[in-house]
């Protein structure tokens, strides 16, 4: 897999996680553990995008 399609896939997943976080935070009783896990996943993806972009 070349770098560009991989970066685009990661960006799409990053956006999806942003939406999942927003959805969970908008609930009357948000699940803080789930939000924390989603944010960790989002950060890992952001780091991978940065690494691939600089390569």
Largest sheet: none
Radius of gyration: 13 Å
Helicity level, as a percent range? over 70%
Count of helical stretches:
2
Distance from N terminus to C terminus (CA atoms, Å) equals 14 Å
The proportion of strand residues reads under 5%
Mean pLDDT: 94
Uncertain segments: none
Order of helices and strands: HH
Shape: elongated
- What is the number of E strands? 0
Structural class: mainly alpha
Report on the structure:
With 55 residues, the protein is an all-alpha fold. The chain has 2 helices and no strands. It has helices at residues 3-25, 32-54. The chain is elongated, with a radius of gyration of 13 Å. The model has no long low-confidence stretch (mean pLDDT 94).
What are the salient characteristics of this protein?
single chain, 55 residues, mainly alpha, 2 helices
Brief summary:
With 55 residues, the chain is mostly helical. 84% of the residues lie in helices and 0% in strands. The protein has helices at residues 3-25, 32-54.
Per-chain topology:
Layout: H1 3-25, H2 32-54
Helix pairs in contact: 1-2
């Amino acid at each position: 897999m070349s770098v560009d399609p991989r970066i685009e896939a990661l960006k799409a997943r990053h956006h999806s996680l942003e939406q999942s976080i927003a959805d969970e935070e908008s609930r009357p009783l948000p699940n803080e553990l789930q939000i924390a896990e989603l944010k960790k996943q989002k950060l890992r993806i952001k780091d991978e995008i940065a690494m691939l972009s600089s390569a």
